[in-house]
Amino acid sequence: MSARLLYDLTGLVHWYAYFRHPGGVQRVIEKVASSDVVRQSSTVEFVVRILGSDRFYRIEPDLIANLGSGRSSAISRLRRILAQGLRLATLPEMLSEGRHFHLPYLAAGLTRTEGLIEAWTEGGAPRSLPALDIVAPPGSQDALFNPGDLWWQKKYVATVAGLKQRTGVRIVQMIHDLYLIERPEWTPAGAVRIFAEQLHGIAPSVDCWLTSSQFVRQQVQRYLADRSVPEKPIAVLPMGWDSFDALRDAGQDRLSDRMVLERHGLIDKPFMLSVGTIEPRKNVPALLDATDELRARFGEAVPRLVIVGGYGWKAAEVRARLTTGSRNGNLLWLENLSDGDLGALYRNALFTVMPSHGEGWGLAVQESLALGVPCIASNAGATREAGLDLATYFDPASAEGLTRAMAAWISDGAALAAARDRIAQALATRRFPSWNDAGSVLLRSALS
Known about the structure:
Strand order of the largest sheet: 3-2-1-4-5-6-7
């Protein structure tokens, strides 16, 4: 039997049990999984762990690919499959590991009414689904890839470590960043504790690490050295510049862009754009302060500020400012946007701003530039790797630096046009990594 790569989607299925749009981590997981290189590989099986056991069931590759083109239908199917999967757990297993967010899906699974989940989510009558396909246990020739979301099941890490000890399966672990450990004040204490426990538990069993950037690679190296964990190979997974290409191929054009802008009240209104979760790490107050100062200085010449991002945690004051600003018309705060809407906002923004205190990559920087839109980005973390020589950088500790960078493009249209031309020239003449490149690195790292 040839070697297999078990691509673990346990966390992604749990995410979509309650959310309809991806966060940054989920976006990367989806893009790598749906890349042609991974999805069409005969060695890859997409799997989900059965709660409380070392068994996995299979997810069809097309279902993950459909998260890009048929998201509503794909999510409803994933929710139904989660209920089916929970029915496979025994009562002792469920009692030992189940959490509150499992209960609705457990109830649907045990009563065999999971079809109602799909019908309620998508509309229409319930459809029959085949029984879940249990994956053959891995062997020493196989690899199990966790794409970076270890925290959804309490005994996930202990189970994986035990599986490796019994079978010799190769463990490949993705790390998106280690800010939860290095800067715990940015995150709720419970989340920090869970992440730290899971990472500490899995580290000795890992055969190969993947990271989102050289910056995170160095974070992982320090983490392992500080805890005397023998270092194993660490590869950097390239982040694709083609996140929105499928929308372009599907006909997302200026007419559909105009419909999006009209829906959000942005027709013929210049705007600046910032994309990111509303949480302490994203440094949104600095952006709001800079915009207020510029508005006091330039008045109506300051474009409207559009902020796209769900409310995260530890940001009640920021949320209040966003709500007030949206009410008085100084800014627009949007949550839960589709890729179609987000792409339209990127393409039509004058420029984007990413003021974060630290990033393991900086998808918002990369996505802006990939669509030809100038970006002002914090120079913290890995954002220089994401923005290369195409973004304009500032020190997030300097409020003056952010204000000055924004003022330059607000007051000097020629400078902004020159930045846009420079990006267009780079996109036309240089090759940038794709999600297929990421998939190739994954396969090579996991199975070599």
